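Go through this fold for my students:
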Amino acid sequence: MDVRAQVSMVFHLDKCIGCHTCSIACKNVWTDRKGAEYMWWNNVETKPGTGFPTLWEDQERYRGGWERNEDGDGVTLKLQGKTRTLGNIFANPALPTVDDYYEPWTYDYGHLFDAPAGDDQPTARTVSMITGQPMDVEAGPNWDDDLGGSPIYAANDPNLEGLTDEEREQLNELERMMFFYLPRICNHCVNPSCVAACPAGALYKRGEDGIVLLSQEKCRAWRMCISGCPYKKTYYNWSTGKSEKCILCFPRLESGHAPACFHSCVGRIRYLGVLLYDASRLEWAASAPDEELVERHRALIQDPSDEDVLAAARANGVSEALIAAAQNSPVYRFVKEWQLALPLHPEFRTLPMLFYVPPMLPVMAKLAGEHYDVDGANGNGSANGAVPSLSNLDQSRAPLRYMANLFSAGNEEIVAAVYRKLYAVRVHMRAKKVGNVPEAEVAATLAAGKTTAEEAEAIFRLTSLPTFQERFVLPPLNREAQIEATEDPYRHKQEAGFGFRKAPERRW
């Protein structure tokens, strides 16, 4: 057993309001400089939608992530092998173009302010920030927000694969239209394909906390990391000639502060904590059949209260502070204990360590004559134990297949089990707060969700009423102690006070 610590996150999508505050906070801190104009280490997408960059989920086009070997024993990088790496260094066919993101632009304000007097109103034309030439704006980072242009954009969402024609038509029926928001950052995967794809070895995964970083010194701009990442969360800085990515705000974590996106989140949808996982089972988990990927991913995560797990973690140098954080981790409760949070596209086989609680499915609305037809949507006779006026799996505007394509590699039962438990929490709390649900209905719904009243209360408490300290459970990572352990034992002779190092003497 090779137990390691991983800083991990949960995003509760029912609480995301799509305000993009997290995106702006991240951009102001990390990518507000030349060459990074089109970089959004944190972006919020509308689903259904094509996302950013356009159609990033289509791995037949971009070839990111891993493929399961034909014999089921192990995985292979989907992008290329060593031979093709050499051939593609100077011409990478799976690399997104700037048009797949958008060409960053500014405005010719000089023409607007300095134009001579005339009969026409002067305008500020759009100018490319890359070429400096006038351009026509044809795309942006949130071009299809809120189903903007849904017949063009949302209709091409790769997650719609396998849906019936009737289910697809819901995108264009106004009274049945629905969407939700999907915030995305680097997943800091356990099996990162960006690390494997880089010929220069510039990407690496920190052993003490699992954060995936990119060395600017080693980067040679081959950009295989961009193609190799199935989530397209590595970007190329056209000004510096280096690739860049989300660093999970590790300087903030090392000083005990939450990441910028976490701290600024208006909806308080983010939970950050520590997971302990068994690195010796990585290949076993990554090479699972599609229908077993989520279960093996869960099995990879270890119980932080198990004595054997703790002994293995201590043997690997995991600190007592990180162990204590793992034992109180909200991420562990959502992912492993309650089994409500799911990985994004587990079929990419990178074993992402950021998880999502799927959004509740809205009640189906359909006009029958001059009135809404609610007889089929009120839960009467539902096999899932839902109660009248509450949404259920049989009658919902968001097809279960769509959610399964997004969060469980097509395994609808995994997603259905999550929703049954979420509905059980809703019914239990409605019975408690409103009192209009019969006890028999509550008991049936709890049984269908395989949960108890006590667990439903705990889920509600951590979802709706958590404090900051309950959502962010991580000690300062004490990076300075890690660095000192690698320095020479005579470093005290070179210090200049307060731990600062003296500059080396120059000899001319």
In short: Residues 376-389, 490-508 have pLDDT under 50 and may be disordered.
